[in-house]
Amino acid sequence: MQRSWWGWGNVSDAVRGAERDALVARVRGLLPDADLTPHDPPDVASLHVPAPRVAPPASLAGLCTTDAEDRLAHARGQAYRDVARNLAGDLGEVPDLVVRPRSEQDIVDVLDWCARDGIAVVPFGGGTSVVGGVEPRLGDAYPGVVTLDLERLDRVLEVDRTSRAARIQAGVLGPALEEQLRPHELTLRHFPQSSGAGPSPDRLFLGSEGTLGVITEAWMRLQDRPRWRVQASVHFRDYGEAVAATRAVAQSGLYPANCRLLDPAEAFLNAATSTTGGVLVLAFESADHPVDPWLARAVELCKDHGGSVPSYEDEGPDAAGSWRSAFLRMPYQRDVMAQHAMIAETFETACTWDRFEQLHTAVTAAATEAIREVCGVGVVTCRFTHVYPDGPAPYFGVYAPGRWGSLVSQWDEIKAAVSDALIANGGTITHHHAVGRDHRPWYDRQRPGVFAAALTGAKRALDPAGILNPGVLIDPAGA
Amino acid sequence: MQRSWWGWGNVSDAVRGAERDALVARVRGLLPDADLTPHDPPDVASLHVPAPRVAPPASLAGLCTTDAEDRLAHARGQAYRDVARNLAGDLGEVPDLVVRPRSEQDIVDVLDWCARDGIAVVPFGGGTSVVGGVEPRLGDAYPGVVTLDLERLDRVLEVDRTSRAARIQAGVLGPALEEQLRPHELTLRHFPQSSGAGPSPDRLFLGSEGTLGVITEAWMRLQDRPRWRVQASVHFRDYGEAVAATRAVAQSGLYPANCRLLDPAEAFLNAATSTTGGVLVLAFESADHPVDPWLARAVELCKDHGGSVPSYEDEGPDAAGSWRSAFLRMPYQRDVMAQHAMIAETFETACTWDRFEQLHTAVTAAATEAIREVCGVGVVTCRFTHVYPDGPAPYFGVYAPGRWGSLVSQWDEIKAAVSDALIANGGTITHHHAVGRDHRPWYDRQRPGVFAAALTGAKRALDPAGILNPGVLIDPAGA
Question: N or C: which end of chain B has fewer CB within 10 A?
Answer without folding.
Answer: N
